[in-house]
Amino acid sequence: MTRLGEETTAVVALETVQGAERVAAPARDRCSVTVLAGPASGALVGMKGDSLTVGRGAECDLCIDDPGLSRKQVRVSRRGGACWVEDLGSRNGTLVDGERLQAPLLVHDGARVHIGQDTVLRIGLHDELEDEAQRRLYDSAVRDSLTHLYNRRYLDERLHAEVAYSVRHRAPLSLIIIDIDHFKRVNDTLGHLAGDAVLRLTAAVLVRMVRTEDLVARWGGEEFVVLARGSGLRNAHILADRMRRNIEQMDIPWEGKMHHITVSMGISCVDGPENRVEPAALVAAADGALFEAKRSGRNRVISAGA
Hints:
By secondary structure, the protein is α+β, with helices and mostly antiparallel strands. Helices cover 36% and strands 28% of the residues. The chain has a 6-stranded antiparallel beta sheet. Strands 4-3-5-6-9 form a 5-stranded mixed beta sheet, with no helix packed on it.
């Protein structure tokens, strides 16, 4: 026979177990890779399917321009809620927490993966809420809060990596600087809220018109930058003029009226047999071309050296 006290204890224990089941911690079944060191330092890539590949090849989910990497270096995969790392037959091998990887390895949250010459990855395991929080934190560090384009800091890091990639592979890279004409006039006549709307709409046009492999960033104020990988001066000029015409035709509704703006653009390019240029020189050349576009009447595209 069960005494009253024992019965009460049993009921409380049962309710505690059931309550524990109701508030059990969610499964940490999301996986991400963060670049702690190397050419793509700061990058965060989440696993969209069941695996994620890292390497020097453009076909990888995380492409890093480290000369010590193979085209396909390593695969991070998810199996039954656990995370595994596998070397893909790379020429220089893969280290996980200091140990050379010989076979697919089950890894813990925070495991560090050393690949190539300088690249260090961190494996992160998250539940759904943690994954979303980490993504928001990353976006706040690399995105402009107004336009949601990449910010100046991220652009500076990517510019060095893209120039290095262009030089190493003898592939063209074009840089386009876009400046909104008479933007101060917009703020002075319509107000700063209208100016913010103009910046957001301009950013949306730029993003809509570039390719997946191109990068659009807010340079600062009313200036934007597009990095066009694999585009020589001629193709970059065609793209820039198409963007210029679309922005010119863009309707900006404000206080019951439609308004319009124009932009001026300057382009520089890494190309040719030598294909060597410093990032600062590439920016200076595009900036000089932009100055010439504004000096010669605005609402036009000028290419450096053309």
